[in-house]
Structure formats: C-alpha cells, structure tokens
Design brief:
The chain has 198 residues and is mainly β. 2% of the residues lie in helices and 40% in strands.
C-alpha cells in the first residue's frame, strides 16, 4: 500500500514568494552622443558654417565686423523685427520646418527626442564691456509662429519657457547688431537650456 504525504500551509505562514537564495543580473548601456542625437537634441543648420558641432557640442562663435549687422538663420514672417528700417531681415514662412533636415532655415533646432513632454527653460546670458554697444537678438519659432523672443540688452539676460511635446522641436535664430560700433568689442552670449518633465 502506498504512502501519501500532503503538505499544507498558508501564505501568511510561509511568506509570499519566499525563497532561500537567488542571483540576478541586469545591464545598462549608456551612450554619450553628440548634441544632435541627445535626449534634448541641438541640431545645427548644415548651411551655416558659423553654427555647428565642435567635439559633439553645438557652438556658434562668429566674428562680426564693426558697424555691421549679421543674421544667423531665418526669422519667422510677421515676427518681431529687431532692426526695423535699418536691415533687410531674412524671413521664412516656417523656418523651423525639418520635414527634410536640409530644409531647416533656423540657425539651429532644439528637439525633444524623448517620449515625454518637456518644459524647456531657455535663458540667455549676456556679458559685455561697460562701453560696448553690440546687441544680440534671439527668436524662437515653431513652424509658422514666433513663440517668444529673447533680446539681450544693457548687459542683462532674458528667460523663455517653452513646452515641447515628444518628437517636436523649436527653431532658434539670432541676430547680432553692431551698427555704430567703430572699435572691436568683446561680447559674450550664452544660451542655457534646462528640460523638466511636465
């Protein structure tokens, strides 16, 4: 005659999922990529030699002439003209359109390459000598509309908040106005971008 053995108990007594030993391995691969391919991408206009990647970082460091105006990237049609009557501003209907990357008319684009909506805080810092008169104007645009302007003036800075959905981008163009400047000047402009989940 056979013998049967019955084991019984309750989860409360033995513990749910209790075990004596376990080993698990997980791996993570982190790639450091250039600014174009980052989670928040900074994509330069390939047609502008003064805006590009240097060691993977977006850089713009133009030397402009005294008593001159230089524009980098198209501004949106109907947007704010920082030099009315003194300069023929180059505009486009949708300068940030990247339906084919070569069609980008902005100086560069800020792209949300993540799966989440991001709140961008874009801050322009501006430093110049006490006697410097050069001004720099940044325009942010999304397709056919001007979403905000940052005008650096009087040694101060400006901040713009912008919400960027997954896969979307905003174009940025800028203009340096050195009209009336007859001597070399050192002007330092920094654009800082912070991104947070909304």
């Amino acid at each position: 005659m056979g013998t049967s053995l019955a084991l019984s108990g309750s989860a409360a007594a033995s513990g749910v999922g209790a075990f004596t030993a376990s080993t698990m391995a997980r791996s993570a691969e982190i790639s450091v990529v250039d600014d174009t391919d980052g989670l928040i991408g900074l994509v330069p206009n390939p047609d502008l030699s003064t805006v590009g990647l240097s060691d993977g970082e977006l850089q713009f460091d133009p030397d402009i002439n005294v008593d001159s105006i230089y524009q980098f990237g198209a501004f949106v049609e109907g947007g704010t003209d920082p030099t009315p009557g003194t300069f023929d501003l180059v505009t486009a209907p949708a300068p940030s359109d990247r339906s084919g990357d070569s069609s980008l008319r902005s100086a560069f684009a800020i792209a949300n390459n993540t799966a989440n909506t991001k709140q961008l805080d874009c801050e322009v810092g501006f430093r110049r000598g006490d006697d410097a008169d050069t001004r720099v104007f940044f325009q942010f645009h999304d397709d056919g509309s001007q979403t905000g302007s940052l005008l650096t003036a009087n040694g101060g800075g400006r901040t713009l908040e912008y919400t960027l959905s997954p896969g979307d981008h905003v174009g940025v163009s800028f203009l340096a106005n050195a009209l009336g400047v007859s001597e070399p000047e050192n002007v330092s402009v920094t654009l800082s971008i912070s991104a947070n989940a909304t």
